[in-house]
Amino acid sequence: MKMNTKLIHGGVVADPQTGAVSVPIYQVSTYQQASIGQHKGYEYSRTGNPTRTALEELIATLENGKRGLAFGSGMAAISTVLSMFNKGDHLVISDDVYGGTYRVLSQVFSRFGLEATFVDTSEISYVMDAIRENTRAIYLETPSNPLLKVSDIKLISEICQAKNLYLIVDNTFMTPYWQNPLDLGADIVLHSATKYLGGHSDVVAGLVVTKDEELGERIHFLQNSIGGVIGPFDAWLLIRGMKTLGLRMRQHEESAGQIARYLEQHPRVNKVYYPGLKSHPGHDLAKRQARGFGGMISFDVGSQAKAEKVLEQVNYFVLAESLGAVESIISVPARMTHASIPAETRAELGITDGLIRISVGIEDSEDLLDDLDQALTF
Ligand code: P1T
């Protein structure tokens, strides 16, 4: 099955009871047992729910993995995966990750003794140097949020294999439509499904896919123990959204390419970060390991005041947190999604106060270009 066919048919079969083509929303918390322990595969909806199962099978198919698991948010998915580790374990993680991932590691899991070193994982020597005796996993976000740095999944997976480490990849920006980290050697892939997978700014959700059953069982144990599961209605909304992922991703990318090229030659823009640009240091690697470049662009206009001016002047770009929706979204990461990263660290990373991040929607690209053109007049 090819990708667009998988999006329609993967994991989602007609309801055996009625033949309903759309997976029913099993809005139920518990299931009748014929006698103790005798049930039809479901006993309690934290442990499993048929609507959730359809979604979990769909994402496992899309990511070429063995087991899919669905959560109430991307952070619930990430936190559950991080709960695999023990006190005294150590992770090497991309320095340019979503602010919430940085926060949960530096302010929550650190209290339980999980150590983390944040490095630029697009530089392989930094990854090697950060590995310690107690390192258990490498965690990549590629392309990263918000600077779109590209890390070499295959090369890092070889390091992980040699050193017996797990490789975890946050594939939110690419989605399985463009990139399949498990095929490149990762053990676990995770998503904020709130973004492109849902695609319509109407659901908060997270997904995990494991390479093998054993890891899947371990994470299911943690999912059931911790309890951050997705509800049936949100699972259904995601399945519905994901059917059009291919159509949306192609449009996001086509418009993003046009906009990135426009921004690159704009005199008021100091720097553009988009892996699809030949000038991007990760361009060749992105071409090798992914089938597309995605719809996220960051660009630097030089100061907070100038960034604010752009944000005030745009009409079609919605000023908001989040990304990956049909509507274009604009934000200033330093003061929004990445505010929980200390200012000093942000400055070192290049997440300046003048850095603007756009999630290119599926509106007509001419309108988006005109909108940016009239907004870049500070
Ligand atoms: O928001 P939530 O569904 O809990 O997902 C967290 C998350 C995980 N990974 C990546 C790469 C993300 O971008 C996010 C959430 N990001 C935003 C809300 C944002 O605007 O960047």
Topology readout:
Elements: H1 3-9, H2 50-62, E1 67-71, H3 74-82, E2 90-94, H4 99-108, E3 115-119, H5 124-130, E4 135-141, H6 153-163, E5 166-170, H7 175-178, E6 188-192, E7 206-210, H8 213-226, H9 232-242, H10 245-264, E8 271-273, H11 283-289, E9 296-300, H12 304-313, E10 318-319, E11 329-331, H13 343-349, E12 355-359, H14 365-375
Parallel strand pairs: 2-3, 2-4, 4-5, 5-6, 10-11
Antiparallel strand pairs: 1-7, 6-7, 8-9, 9-12, 11-12
The structure holds ligand P1T.
Ligand P1T binds at residues 73-75, 98, 100-101, 141, 145, 170, 172, 192, 194, 204, 206, 321-323, 337.
InterPro entries: Cys/Met-Metab_PyrdxlP-dep_enz, Cys_met_metab_PP, PyrdxlP-dep_Trfase, PyrdxlP-dep_Trfase_major, PyrdxlP-dep_Trfase_small
Family: Belongs to the trans-sulfuration enzymes family.
Keywords: Pyridoxal phosphate, Transferase
